[in-house]
Amino acid sequence: xxxxxxxxxLIAGAVFGAVVAxxxxxxxxxGNSIIQGTVEKExxxxxxxxxxxxxVAAGAGVYRQFWFFDVQNAEEILQNGSxxxxxxxxxxxxKTRYFAKENITFNSNHTASFLLPVGAIFEPSMSVGSxxxxxxxxxxxxxxxxxxxxxxxxxxxxxxxxxxxxxxxTVNELLxxxxxxxxxxxxxxxxPYNGTYEGIFNVYTGKEDISKVGIIxxxxxxxxLSFWDDKYCDMINGTDASSFAPFVDKKKKLYxxxxxxxxxxxxxxxxxxxxxxxxxxxxxxxxxxxxSPTVNPENSCFCRNPKTTKNCTLAGVLDISSCQNGRPIxxxxxxxxxxxxxxxxxxxxxxPIEEHHVTFMDVEPTTGFTLRFAKRIQVNMMYGPSNVIxxxxxxxxxxxxxLVWMNETALLDDKxxxxxxxxxxxxxxxxxxxWKALLGSGVAIFALCSIAYCxxxxx
Length: 459
What we know:
Elements: H1 2-43, H2 50-56, E1 62-71, H3 74-80, E2 86-96, E3 102-106, E4 111-118, E5 120-122, E6 134-138, H4 140-146, H5 151-161, E7 166-170, H6 171-176, E8 178-180, E9 185-187, E10 196-204, E11 216-219, E12 254-258, E13 263-275, E14 278-285, E15 317-319, E16 329-332, H7 341-345, H8 354-357, E17 360-363, E18 370-383, E19 399-411, H9 414-458
Antiparallel strand pairs: 1-2, 1-19, 2-5, 3-4, 4-10, 6-7, 8-9, 10-11, 12-13, 13-14, 14-17, 15-16, 16-18, 17-18, 18-19
């Protein structure tokens, strides 16, 4: 009778262990389903969700840091055609994107439209000097009209206004604008900026399809660009990079549109990192983004001027004059990172470093929120030789000249980090602990009872 009770107890224990193990196994898909449903609900852009609160106004401070290229040998360049020598000077830091989105309207096609006001506030504590520091830089007016007007007209305008190829301006003037006596108007690398808007944007809310959340439907009322005269290059792909669809797959590229460079780009997974106790996926801009069409044929439609791009073999720069009202602006990565050696040989003092000059995003994979980013862009202008313009008679070849490079960056604050860990990650971890404990203990009980039962039966 005792032996029977023992066997029955072992059988009951085995059954109990099996039930517990099955419960742990069942909890995996059930728990994952609960988590997925919760995350997807909170990721929709509509009032009351976590995504909406972060979307309306950036919780983290967004800063733009500027490094200028200060010309050291302006007279030698003019008199002898010497290679320009520059020294990097910066950072000069401004707080930007501190305004909330305006005119938010929810549309019938599950999109939301809005205006994004922009402004810049100087941050002395994060800068090497004041806004009144002076820089010797390329004359924006001369570079702007060099390839637009007849050189005889350019020469007359330069002489009449007593201008030259280079100018001595304050940081504030170069960035935000100054009165140019030659063109009789306001010029500045980012003029106009303060008091203006970036938009209008239309983005999908994710209400109907969460995989489309944040994806740009229209920019300035249009579904595609009109800068490149090509269907592929004029595509508006992805989000604005502030967030992506939840449950990010590191095997797939992330696409985003940047109005600063007038095109869409993609970033690829680089590796996992720890950010304030949160695992994030780092995605970086790849070297082939600005590769020459000979290396990356998809960039063929971005080559606007074969003459200034060495017959479209030049890598590392993007001519965006078509979206800058004709101004000969060339965008690149800082110090011509991933660019042709020709670019760095034409200007001495450049030193591209991957760690400091690459663009990256750190994305929390469950929510798709970008928790840290660094968008690094260099602004360049072009000038070249001329037999008519006195200040250019010694110039031997076309030069894409670096003016300033910018690091637009943001990092989530400690409060937001704790909220993400407590309200999302801790629940996921707790659920994982519970199902692992149930599955492990169930399997252990089942195995022990089964072994004991078999051994008892043998005896």
